[in-house]
Amino acid sequence: MITFNILTLFPESFSSFLEVGLLGKAFKNKLFKVNTINIREYSNLSAHSVDDKPFSGGPGMVLRPDIISKAIEENFDQLYLKKCLKICFSAKGVRLTQDYLNQNLQVLDFIILNGRYEGIDQRVIDYYGFEEICVGDVILNGGEIATQLFIESFMRLQPNVLGNANTHNEESFNNDLLEHDQFTRPNPWIAPNNMSIEVPSALTNGHHADIEAWKRGNSIENTQKNRPDLFKKYLKKNKNE
After folding, report:
1. Rounded to the nearest 5 degrees, what angle is found at the Cα of 90, between the Cα atoms of 86 and 95?
2. pLDDT digit string (tens) for 64-91?
3. Residue 208, pLDDT score
4. Domain segments of the chain: what residues?
5. CA distance 150 to 120
6. Per CATH, which fold does 2-155 belong to?
7. Rounded to an integer, what distance in angstroms lies between the CA atom of residue 220 and that of residue 176?
8. Which listed residue, of 18, 21, 132, 223, carries a Cα 20 to 30 Å from 233's Cα?
9. How far apart are CA 233 and CA 228, in angstroms?
10. CATH 1.10.1270.20: does it fit domain 172-237?
Protein backbone atom coordinates (compact mmCIF):
# COMPACT_ATOMS: atom_id res chain seq x y z
CA MET A 1 0.00 0.00 0.00
CA ILE A 2 1.17 3.54 -0.74
CA THR A 3 1.91 5.41 2.50
CA PHE A 4 2.21 9.16 2.94
CA ASN A 5 3.89 10.07 6.23
CA ILE A 6 3.24 13.76 6.83
CA LEU A 7 5.18 15.88 9.31
CA THR A 8 3.00 18.90 10.06
CA LEU A 9 1.93 21.40 12.69
CA PHE A 10 -1.69 21.03 11.55
CA PRO A 11 -2.62 17.33 11.17
CA GLU A 12 -6.32 18.24 11.37
CA SER A 13 -6.08 19.92 7.96
CA PHE A 14 -5.98 16.50 6.27
CA SER A 15 -9.19 14.97 7.62
CA SER A 16 -11.87 16.40 5.31
CA PHE A 17 -9.47 16.24 2.35
CA LEU A 18 -9.58 12.44 2.57
CA GLU A 19 -13.37 12.18 2.69
CA VAL A 20 -14.48 13.56 -0.69
CA GLY A 21 -14.44 12.64 -4.36
CA LEU A 22 -12.45 9.93 -6.06
CA LEU A 23 -9.52 10.45 -3.70
CA GLY A 24 -11.79 9.86 -0.71
CA LYS A 25 -13.06 6.68 -2.38
CA ALA A 26 -9.49 5.48 -2.99
CA PHE A 27 -8.64 6.20 0.65
CA LYS A 28 -11.72 4.32 1.85
CA ASN A 29 -10.77 1.39 -0.40
CA LYS A 30 -7.32 1.33 1.20
CA LEU A 31 -5.40 2.14 -1.99
CA PHE A 32 -3.25 4.41 0.16
CA LYS A 33 -2.94 5.57 3.74
CA VAL A 34 -1.95 8.83 5.42
CA ASN A 35 0.02 8.95 8.65
CA THR A 36 0.13 12.46 10.15
CA ILE A 37 2.81 13.32 12.70
CA ASN A 38 2.35 16.47 14.76
CA ILE A 39 5.78 18.14 14.96
CA ARG A 40 4.72 20.15 18.02
CA GLU A 41 4.39 16.98 20.09
CA TYR A 42 8.19 16.54 19.91
CA SER A 43 9.03 19.91 21.44
CA ASN A 44 10.17 20.18 25.07
CA LEU A 45 10.25 23.97 24.91
CA SER A 46 7.85 26.31 26.66
CA ALA A 47 4.33 26.07 25.19
CA HIS A 48 5.70 23.40 22.83
CA SER A 49 7.35 26.08 20.70
CA VAL A 50 8.83 24.76 17.45
CA ASP A 51 10.44 27.84 15.89
CA ASP A 52 13.01 30.56 16.51
CA LYS A 53 14.36 33.77 14.96
CA PRO A 54 16.44 33.36 11.78
CA PHE A 55 20.18 34.01 12.09
CA SER A 56 19.97 35.92 8.81
CA GLY A 57 17.69 38.49 10.38
CA GLY A 58 14.48 39.75 8.88
CA PRO A 59 10.83 38.97 9.58
CA GLY A 60 9.34 35.59 10.34
CA MET A 61 10.38 32.54 12.31
CA VAL A 62 12.14 29.34 11.26
CA LEU A 63 11.25 25.77 12.29
CA ARG A 64 14.03 24.31 14.46
CA PRO A 65 16.05 21.35 13.16
CA ASP A 66 16.34 19.61 16.53
CA ILE A 67 12.58 19.29 16.96
CA ILE A 68 11.98 18.11 13.39
CA SER A 69 14.81 15.60 13.73
CA LYS A 70 13.32 14.24 16.94
CA ALA A 71 9.97 13.75 15.22
CA ILE A 72 11.69 11.85 12.41
CA GLU A 73 13.96 9.71 14.58
CA GLU A 74 11.16 8.64 16.91
CA ASN A 75 8.91 7.53 14.06
CA PHE A 76 11.19 5.98 11.43
CA ASP A 77 14.14 3.62 11.53
CA GLN A 78 17.15 4.04 9.26
CA LEU A 79 16.07 1.37 6.78
CA TYR A 80 12.71 3.05 6.28
CA LEU A 81 14.32 6.46 5.92
CA LYS A 82 16.58 5.14 3.17
CA LYS A 83 13.79 3.60 1.11
CA CYS A 84 11.37 6.56 1.39
CA LEU A 85 11.05 9.41 -1.05
CA LYS A 86 11.48 12.43 1.22
CA ILE A 87 9.87 15.68 0.07
CA CYS A 88 9.79 19.18 1.51
CA PHE A 89 7.65 21.77 -0.27
CA SER A 90 9.46 25.07 -0.74
CA ALA A 91 9.16 28.08 -3.03
CA LYS A 92 12.88 27.69 -3.78
CA GLY A 93 12.57 24.06 -4.84
CA VAL A 94 12.35 22.50 -8.29
CA ARG A 95 8.95 22.65 -9.97
CA LEU A 96 6.49 19.80 -9.48
CA THR A 97 5.55 18.42 -12.91
CA GLN A 98 3.65 15.50 -14.40
CA ASP A 99 7.02 14.11 -15.49
CA TYR A 100 8.18 14.09 -11.87
CA LEU A 101 5.01 12.27 -10.79
CA ASN A 102 5.33 9.70 -13.58
CA GLN A 103 8.98 9.07 -12.77
CA ASN A 104 8.05 8.22 -9.17
CA LEU A 105 4.87 6.23 -9.74
CA GLN A 106 6.40 3.06 -8.30
CA VAL A 107 7.31 4.68 -4.97
CA LEU A 108 5.31 3.22 -2.09
CA ASP A 109 6.60 5.21 0.88
CA PHE A 110 6.83 8.97 1.31
CA ILE A 111 7.89 11.27 4.12
CA ILE A 112 6.58 14.77 3.48
CA LEU A 113 7.82 17.64 5.64
CA ASN A 114 5.43 20.60 5.85
CA GLY A 115 7.01 23.94 6.62
CA ARG A 116 5.36 26.97 8.23
CA TYR A 117 6.28 30.55 9.01
CA GLU A 118 9.48 31.73 7.24
CA GLY A 119 10.62 28.17 6.50
CA ILE A 120 12.63 25.23 7.82
CA ASP A 121 16.23 25.20 9.02
CA GLN A 122 18.18 24.06 5.93
CA ARG A 123 20.40 21.75 7.95
CA VAL A 124 17.63 19.25 8.69
CA ILE A 125 16.51 19.32 5.05
CA ASP A 126 20.03 18.54 3.85
CA TYR A 127 20.83 16.00 6.57
CA TYR A 128 17.88 13.76 5.75
CA GLY A 129 18.04 14.36 2.00
CA PHE A 130 14.63 15.94 1.50
CA GLU A 131 13.89 16.93 -2.09
CA GLU A 132 12.71 20.54 -2.17
CA ILE A 133 9.68 20.82 -4.46
CA CYS A 134 7.77 23.93 -5.57
CA VAL A 135 4.11 23.60 -6.63
CA GLY A 136 3.97 26.96 -8.41
CA ASP A 137 5.25 30.51 -8.51
CA VAL A 138 3.21 31.46 -5.46
CA ILE A 139 3.86 31.73 -1.72
CA LEU A 140 1.74 29.67 0.69
CA ASN A 141 1.47 29.98 4.47
CA GLY A 142 2.56 26.36 4.84
CA GLY A 143 3.12 23.07 3.11
CA GLU A 144 -0.21 21.43 3.91
CA ILE A 145 -2.05 22.58 0.78
CA ALA A 146 0.97 21.68 -1.33
CA THR A 147 1.01 18.21 0.24
CA GLN A 148 -2.67 17.72 -0.55
CA LEU A 149 -2.03 18.80 -4.12
CA PHE A 150 0.83 16.31 -4.38
CA ILE A 151 -1.15 13.40 -2.94
CA GLU A 152 -4.11 13.99 -5.25
CA SER A 153 -1.99 14.46 -8.38
CA PHE A 154 0.07 11.37 -7.52
CA MET A 155 -2.80 9.09 -6.56
CA ARG A 156 -4.98 9.91 -9.58
CA LEU A 157 -2.24 8.34 -11.72
CA GLN A 158 -2.46 5.07 -9.81
CA PRO A 159 -4.54 2.10 -11.04
CA ASN A 160 -8.18 1.91 -9.91
CA VAL A 161 -8.40 5.52 -8.72
CA LEU A 162 -10.04 7.16 -11.74
CA GLY A 163 -13.16 5.70 -13.29
CA ASN A 164 -11.62 5.66 -16.77
CA ALA A 165 -7.94 4.79 -17.11
CA ASN A 166 -7.85 6.40 -20.57
CA THR A 167 -8.38 9.82 -18.96
CA HIS A 168 -4.61 10.20 -18.61
CA ASN A 169 -4.06 9.96 -22.36
CA GLU A 170 -5.60 13.34 -23.19
CA GLU A 171 -4.79 15.45 -20.16
CA SER A 172 -2.78 18.64 -19.97
CA PHE A 173 1.01 18.23 -20.07
CA ASN A 174 0.73 15.02 -22.07
CA ASN A 175 3.27 15.37 -24.91
CA ASP A 176 4.07 18.91 -23.67
CA LEU A 177 0.64 20.23 -24.64
CA LEU A 178 -2.25 21.61 -22.59
CA GLU A 179 -5.59 19.84 -22.88
CA HIS A 180 -8.12 20.89 -25.51
CA ASP A 181 -11.31 22.74 -24.50
CA GLN A 182 -14.27 20.64 -23.35
CA PHE A 183 -17.98 20.95 -24.25
CA THR A 184 -21.24 19.15 -23.39
CA ARG A 185 -25.01 19.59 -23.77
CA PRO A 186 -27.04 21.66 -24.43
CA ASN A 187 -26.08 22.64 -27.94
CA PRO A 188 -26.64 25.45 -28.57
CA TRP A 189 -26.42 27.03 -25.12
CA ILE A 190 -28.52 30.16 -24.69
CA ALA A 191 -26.43 32.53 -22.57
CA PRO A 192 -28.01 35.02 -20.09
CA ASN A 193 -27.83 37.76 -22.75
CA ASN A 194 -29.88 35.46 -25.10
CA MET A 195 -26.87 34.85 -27.31
CA SER A 196 -26.92 31.38 -28.89
CA ILE A 197 -23.48 29.79 -28.48
CA GLU A 198 -22.74 26.56 -30.36
CA VAL A 199 -20.22 23.79 -29.78
CA PRO A 200 -17.49 23.75 -32.48
CA SER A 201 -18.99 21.93 -35.45
CA ALA A 202 -15.99 19.61 -35.80
CA LEU A 203 -17.02 17.98 -32.50
CA THR A 204 -20.61 17.34 -33.53
CA ASN A 205 -20.38 16.16 -37.15
CA GLY A 206 -19.56 12.55 -36.19
CA HIS A 207 -16.29 12.35 -38.17
CA HIS A 208 -13.58 10.90 -35.97
CA ALA A 209 -10.74 12.38 -38.03
CA ASP A 210 -12.25 15.87 -37.76
CA ILE A 211 -12.65 15.50 -34.01
CA GLU A 212 -9.04 14.40 -33.49
CA ALA A 213 -7.72 17.19 -35.74
CA TRP A 214 -9.74 19.78 -33.79
CA LYS A 215 -8.52 18.46 -30.44
CA ARG A 216 -4.91 18.55 -31.60
CA GLY A 217 -5.17 22.04 -33.05
CA ASN A 218 -6.97 23.39 -30.00
CA SER A 219 -4.37 21.87 -27.66
CA ILE A 220 -1.60 23.55 -29.63
CA GLU A 221 -3.50 26.87 -29.58
CA ASN A 222 -4.08 26.69 -25.80
CA THR A 223 -0.45 25.84 -25.13
CA GLN A 224 0.90 28.63 -27.34
CA LYS A 225 -1.43 31.17 -25.68
CA ASN A 226 -1.21 30.12 -22.02
CA ARG A 227 2.13 28.33 -21.62
CA PRO A 228 4.72 29.63 -24.13
CA ASP A 229 7.42 27.83 -22.14
CA LEU A 230 5.73 24.48 -22.80
CA PHE A 231 5.07 25.43 -26.41
CA LYS A 232 8.78 26.03 -27.03
CA LYS A 233 9.49 22.60 -25.57
CA TYR A 234 6.82 21.07 -27.80
CA LEU A 235 8.23 22.75 -30.93
CA LYS A 236 11.72 21.55 -30.09
CA LYS A 237 10.54 17.95 -29.87
CA ASN A 238 8.38 18.20 -32.99
CA LYS A 239 10.56 20.10 -35.47
CA ASN A 240 9.20 18.22 -38.46
CA GLU A 241 5.50 18.95 -37.79
Report:
1. 85
2. 999 999 999 999 999 999 999 999 999 9
3. 95
4. 2-155, 172-237
5. 19
6. Alpha/beta knot (3.40.1280)
7. 9
8. 132
9. 9
10. yes
